[in-house]
Structure formats: C-alpha cells, structure tokens
Design brief:
The protein has about 500 residues and is of the alpha/beta class. About 30% of the residues lie in helices and about 25% in strands. It is globular, with a radius of gyration of 24 Å.
Amino acid sequence: MQPTDPDYLYDVAIVGFGPTGALLANLLGRAGRSVLVLERDPEVHPLPRAVHFDGEVMRIFQTAGLAEAILGVARPSAKGMRFINGAGETLMERRGTEGVGPQGWVNNWYFHQPRLDSALRESAAALPNVTVALGHEVVRLDEHADYVRLSAGAPVRVRGVTHQARYVVGCDGARSLVRRHMGVDNEDLGLHQPWLVLDLLVDPASPRAQALPDHTMQLCDPSQPMTIVHVGGRRHRWEIMLMPGEDPDRAIRPDNFWPLLSRWIAPEDAVIERAAVYTFHSTITRQWRRRRLLLAGDACHQTPPFLGQGMCAGLRDTANLAWKLDAVLRRVATDSLLDTYGSERIPHVRAFIELAVYLGSVIQATDKRGAAARDRHFREQGAEVFDFPQPQLGPGAREDAAPPAGVVFPQPRLPDGRLLDEAIGWRFAVIGTRAALGGVTPQTRQRWHERDVAVVDEVGPTIEAWFAAHDCTALILRPDRYVFGTARTAAELDALTSALPY
C-alpha cells in the first residue's frame, strides 16, 4: 500500500523501519492488521551495524514467515566466542555448537545488515495491508482518546502529511522522538565507552586474511582492548576501544588504526568499508507504554555489543508485543494486556544487558595491575564458560510464578516430522500427553475451540524429557513461544485454561 487519505485510521503506526520496526510490520501485517510505517531515511542505511543474531531470533523470523528470506542473507556459524588476554590465554569462552540448537535452528548467525534490512522491508512492503512511507520523518504526535495523529515531514517538494493510528510504536532508535514525547526517563546501567568500529573487505587470496580467526575474538589486552568478528565471506569487523584522551577524529584515520591491526592484517590485504567511532551504552527506559504510545528496540534499551545481543533484544520486543497488539485490536483481549509488555520485557532485557556489561568489564580493563589480577583469577579457576541467558519474563501474561512459566520453550521436531511452530501456528497452544489432555472437561475443550487454541498430543521424546524435567504432563504455550503455565493433571490444565488472557 501507499500513503493514503490522512483521515484513514490505521491499527498501528510504526515509527522507524530498521529491523525492529520491519519485523513488527511483518508480524502485524500477516495477522491482518492495517499498519503504517513511517521512516525518515529514503533508503536502507548502506553501512553495516549489527552483525549477529541467535537461534531464538531465527525462530521469530520463522514465525513471521521470513525464514527463507533470512536464509538468503545470513550465514549459520558453529563457532563461538573467546576472551583472550594479551598473552594469548583464554579467560572466558562461549562455545560454539554443531547442528540445530534447542530453538530448532543453528544458534549463531552472522549477516550484513543492509541485506537483512532489505529482506525484512521487502517482505513487509509486499503485504497488502502494510503502508510504507520512506523519507517521512515524524515531527509531531497529538494524542486523542481513541487514536494518535502523527505529523510527518515528507520529501523535498512534497508538503507535510498527517496520519492517524489506534496505536503508535516507536522503533526510532536511541534518539527516539516517540520516547521524548512520552516523557519517560532511562535507567543507566553504567557503561558508556567510545570504540572505533572498522569494517573491512579482505582479499581472500591474502595469506594473512586466510589466517584470520573464524570465531569471535575478544582481545582483553589492557594496552588496546579490541574485538574481531568474521561477519561472512570477505567481511571482517574490528572494534577497538579508544583509550583515555584519545581523539575520535584521529582514531578513524587509516594511519592511526592500521598499525593496531598489524598482527593480523596489512593495508594491502583489505579495503576499508567503514571507520567510525561509536559510544557503547547500557540503558533501559523505565516505562515502555503510555496510553496509545509504545516503544521497542533501541528506543527503550541499549545493549553493549560484547554479547552480540543488541538487535536481538529489539526483535524479542516485537515477538512479545505483536501478539498482544493483535489480540487487543481484534477485541478478544482488553487494552490492559499491553501493560504486560513492559513488565515482562524489562527484567528480561536487563539480564542480557547486565551480562554484556560484565563482559565489557572483562575486556575493557586497561589498568595493567587490575588486568594482571583478572588474568590470575581466571588462570586459577580455569576459563569461564558462559552462554546466552534464557531469563524468565517479568510479571505479566503468564500463570505460574516460578520457571518454567515465562521462559522460552524449545522447538523440537514432532513425531510427524514438522517443527513444533509449524504445527501450532501463531497462537496459543496446549501441548501435553494424551492422558492429560484426554481428561479435561468439555468446557475446557470448548474454550480451546472458541479461542482457536492449537492442541498437540503427540509430543515425542524431546518434549517428554522436558515434561519429566519440570514435573508436569502438559503446558500452555503463548504465541511468542514462552510458557504460559504448566500442569501435572487434567484438573490443573482445566484451571490453567480458565486463566488464559483471552
């Protein structure tokens, strides 16, 4: 769709068409909601930014019908991440894994963001109920009881336009206009450090380029901390911490940074794609919703890159928010369901940011005595092994207080060969043994039918083992693949069903 009558009332207006906004447009558009996307830039940003996502995010792409498109622009990796000190000793390690992980996909993926952005945008723009307006910068929001009016500055020679939507989601980055309009403040988690980011296209015939590490290396050298990532193909990234007093304008000059790379690569081995200084931040906005305005992605949290989870956090936001917006707009759930978005996501994203801040404290140690004490600590205890956390959501649209409620559920293949999410679709699902499901009341079965709840009673060994580990025989799964609650008996499943939010 193209921009239309300014009096048309969209279900949702999305401000910003980066990965977070584009994925949200895909999810809501496929659900049949009318969506307007307003993006100030006329084209995809041409330079790389994010480079990594994990298996859970690939599963979200699968839910949005984007798996095939993403497979064309991202590469799976079985390699992990190592934190190496200046002497070459491994301090910490996130080990790589071969094959499919618990989310039904390989757990590490690398990509060139302009290609990813293009794939997400093309899919959203192809949906008949999604309108995309590029080169339209939102400059004003006017809130009314039942809708929000958005004023956007349009391209040159085209006068400004206005639009209306029932809800507005700000996916407009760290300097979000939507957040500023909401008047909410940020919690500072303490990390604000400038780094030089270099993206290089290496010559595959160069012996030095061929010797570059294929895993992600975090060089914890107090004289110059840095990160090395093989993004894919010829593309490699170096991130180099600026030392105290170092001039950012000088840092981006080739005559300054090539000597820092000399142990790995020389100027004749690569072409510079980008050299820029960014400040890595760690913040969480305290309130993600105010009436008909909501935030997602960098607009409400910023994650240091040491865990490769910054973009992932925004995409998890969309998976949580999209099904709730859809339910409210379909009038099968009350507007209060949207209050659970922030209450659930804030503690979840905090766990990732705090781990990234901790990893940053390891790599960013520049005091030589402190770094030596750090090295002794890891030498004595052995290299620390860590992985992406799987934290519990905060309080919200789930029944049980303790895990596994509020924790992402695995995606195995079912006995019929389908992946779990292929079988259940984008909706609530009841998964359990035949005995547990067969013993529920007719009223429970009627509620499943009326609410289009998927029912899976042939579970296979992976889910059977999960049931045994969590002392249950059934569970209810939310559309975002997080556990709503578990049950040990048919009677408990009856009670769990009666607690569904719609």
